[in-house]
Structures are given as C-alpha cells and as structure tokens.
C-alpha cells in the first residue's frame, strides 16, 4: 500500500474515517444555537414547556416536572446542544461543570453514539446502579426496553461478578446487556454480553458403550510420556473417542488436561482445576482444542473437528482479562476469525460480542437453546 496516496495494491482508495469533534455552539465551528439555554433546577437543567414537551415526547429526553418543563441531566444538555440546537447555559458551563463532574464529557459522547441511529436511550436516576434503558427506533416507550445500557472507560477494570449477575437477570427478562466503552480519543465501542449454555453433538465418556470404554482403558494402560501428556496407541487403526486427543504419527496424543481426565475416568485420580472445567464442557458434548493461536485457553467445537469450525474461543477465569481494553483485544481477535469470545465468571460462562448502534444484535450460536431465556437442555451446562 502506498502510504502517501492512501491507495492499496488493489487500487482501492483507503481514506481515514472522519472522527467527530462535537464542537460547542460558542465556537465558530459549533452548531447554530436556536433555542434558549436551560436554567438551573434542583434536579438538573430545566427546559421550558414548549421545547421541553418536544424533547420529552419525541425524543424521550429528560423528565417532566410539575410545571410542565422538562429537566435534563448534564449529559442530556450536551446531547441537546449537539443535536437539538439548544444553547448551553453559558460559554463556561462545560468547564465549570467538569470541575464537579469529570466524566461528563465521556457520558455525553456515549449518549450521542447510543442515540446516533435513531435509538432511544433513557437515563436512569443517578441513584440507580445501571445507567439507562435503550429502545430501538422502531419500538419506543412505553414498550418494554430492548436493552439495559451501561458505560465505562477503556482503562477501567471489568467488574465481572456484577456483569454476570446483570447479564443473567437481563437475559431472564429477554433484554440485552449493553456496554459502551469509550477510549481516550472519545471513540466508543459497543458490546453485548450474554450467558452461554454450551451444548454439542459429540459423545462424552458417559455415552460410550462398554466395549469402547474397555478399549480406551487398555490403551491408557500402555501409554508412554509425550510432551506434557501421554501418547496412546490407536485402536484397530482408529480412535473411538474423538473428544480426547489428536491423532499424529500413528498414535493418539493427549495433552496435560486430557491426560488428567483419562486418569480420573480410568484410575479415579483427582482432576486438576483446569481439567475439571474441561471435563464439564466435554460432558455437554463439546470438543476442546488448544487456543494458543487465538490468545485463549481453548477453541471449542460443537461437532467433529472435520465437520465444523469452532464457534467459540474460551478463556478460563485464571487468564481472564482485567480491563476493558484487554477485553476489546480478545473480542476483536475472536470476531476477526468468526468466533464468539467466551470467558468464565464464577464457574459460569459469559459471551462478549461487538455490536453497532442501530443494528440488530448478533444471533447466538445455533446449537444453544432456541429460546435464550428458556431452561437449558438436560445435557447442557
């Protein structure tokens, strides 16, 4: 690619995408103010009834008070300035407000992005633990909300236990758990988070017949060390349990986790913490293969490895990202190879997936229950 012309080797013009700067109306490049500024109110910033009614009824902005005016939050004041031609309370208002509310500009940008496709995001009271509720452009209040929205900076730690609780509760209410992550350039990335119930078509140990198990026990009895695990002989030129091992050099190679699982099943040895997690997933009919190339613990298949691609990349709790910027890297890599990134939280599984404002949520993988809020299949976990 030519760095000076912005044209790649195929002759395509690669122009950098425009980055919004959201100027203020007090500056020459800012939006033309048309409406008088809101005035201070004990609950926020009050807009008089004529304009307030339009903002409240058409855009679902602010909250109506007794005298018919509508009170806006700080971030709604900025949103209305950028998008509804409402003047700021004063030229120094933003700087003065930031002194007491340092995250105001981040919240306002997130609100602007969340509403950019005609979506409706209604903010909760500051006393609420969740930031707001979102409706699609086609289905507005008083209809049930489509998502519960929260936001964070990219450098902040992820509160995984709370995220698990919120996603589980939202899923039970048939709502999306939606997170908007803003970086230091005021660029916003949107994610959907949902619980995952693994289910696959592979045969676990409990469903192998007696002859297959006996042959596997015999193969285990003549194992030899190989790498971190063991090498077992093939059985009549093949291998009856495809969930375990990799055929190579006319033998079946078992890694450390698979070796621990075989020792548990055949000899009654205790499972390691990681092999216990692997065995639970295998009991659900899933095949696990190393995720080294994808920066995770496992890639997980719901069918034979020669039949289907791995739908999931799985990260266990001990290697789980700490900050949102690390989650962004993991999810971007996973979706770049058409996989769903899943991480463990308190022994349960959460998927984190990229989303776009105004676009439908990505469908969940087809082998999971048809109703994501319904009870799991008996063989799933």
Beta content: 15-25%
- Report the strand count: 18
End-to-end span in angstroms?
48 Å
Biggest sheet: strands side by side, in what order? 5-6-7-8-9-18-17-16-15-14
Structural class: alpha+beta
Query: Rounded to an integer, what's the Rg over CA atoms?
Result: 27 Å
* Continuous helix count: 9
Mean pLDDT: 90
Q: Largest sheet, if any?
A: 10 strands, mixed
Helical proportion, percent range: 25-40%
- Quick one: overall form? elongated
Which parts are unreliable, with pLDDT below 50 for 5 consecutive residues or more?
Answer: 367-381
Helices and strands, in order, run as EEHEEHHHEEEHEEHEEEEHHEEEHEE
Give an overview of the whole structure.
With 381 residues, the protein is of the alpha+beta class. Among the domains are: 13-102, no CATH class; 205-276, no CATH class. It contains nine helices and 18 strands. It has a ten-stranded mixed sheet, sandwiched between helices. Strand 10 (224-226) and strand 11 (229-233) form a beta hairpin. Mean pLDDT is 90; it is low at 367-381.
């Amino acid at each position: 690619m030519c760095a000076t012309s912005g044209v790649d080797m195929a002759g395509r013009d690669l122009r950098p995408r425009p980055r919004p700067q959201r100027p203020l109306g007090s500056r020459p490049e800012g939006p033309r103010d048309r409406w008088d500024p809101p005035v201070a109110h004990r609950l926020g910033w009050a807009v008089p009834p004529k304009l307030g009614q339009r903002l409240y009824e058409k855009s679902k902005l602010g909250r109506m008070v007794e005298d018919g005016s509508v009170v806006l939050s700080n971030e709604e004041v900025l949103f209305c300035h950028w998008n509804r031609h409402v003047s700021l309370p004063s030229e120094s208002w933003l700087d003065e407000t930031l002194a007491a509310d340092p995250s105001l500009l981040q919240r306002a940008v997130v609100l602007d992005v969340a509403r950019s496709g005609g979506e409706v995001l209604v903010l909760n009271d500051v006393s609420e633990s969740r930031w707001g509720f979102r409706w699609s452009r086609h289905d507005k209040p008083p209809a049930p909300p489509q998502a519960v929205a929260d936001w964070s900076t990219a450098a902040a730690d992820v509160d995984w236990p709370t995220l698990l609780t919120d996603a589980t509760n939202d899923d039970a209410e048939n709502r999306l758990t939606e997170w908007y992550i803003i970086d230091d350039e005021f660029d916003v990335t949107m994610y959907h988070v949902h619980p995952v119930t693994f289910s696959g078509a592979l045969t676990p140990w409990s469903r192998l017949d007696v002859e297959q198990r006996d042959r596997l026990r015999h193969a285990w009895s003549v194992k030899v060390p190989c790498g971190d695990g063991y090498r077992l002989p093939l059985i009549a030129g093949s291998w009856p349990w495809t969930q375990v091992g990799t055929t190579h050099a006319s033998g079946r190679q078992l890694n450390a986790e698979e070796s621990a699982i075989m020792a548990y099943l055949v000899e009654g040895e205790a499972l390691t913490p990681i092999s216990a997690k692997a065995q639970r997933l295998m009991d659900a009919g899933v095949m696990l293969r190393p995720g080294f190339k994808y920066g995770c613990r496992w890639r997980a298949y719901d069918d034979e490895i020669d039949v289907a691609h791995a739908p999931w990349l799985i990260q266990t709790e001990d290697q789980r990202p700490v900050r949102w910027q690390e989650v962004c890297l993991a999810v971007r890599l996973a979706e770049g190879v058409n996989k769903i990134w899943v991480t463990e939280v308190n022994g349960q599984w959460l998927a984190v997936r990229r989303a776009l404002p105004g676009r439908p949520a990505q469908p969940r993988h087809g082998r999971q229950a048809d109703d994501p809020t319904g009870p799991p299949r008996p063989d799933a976990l």
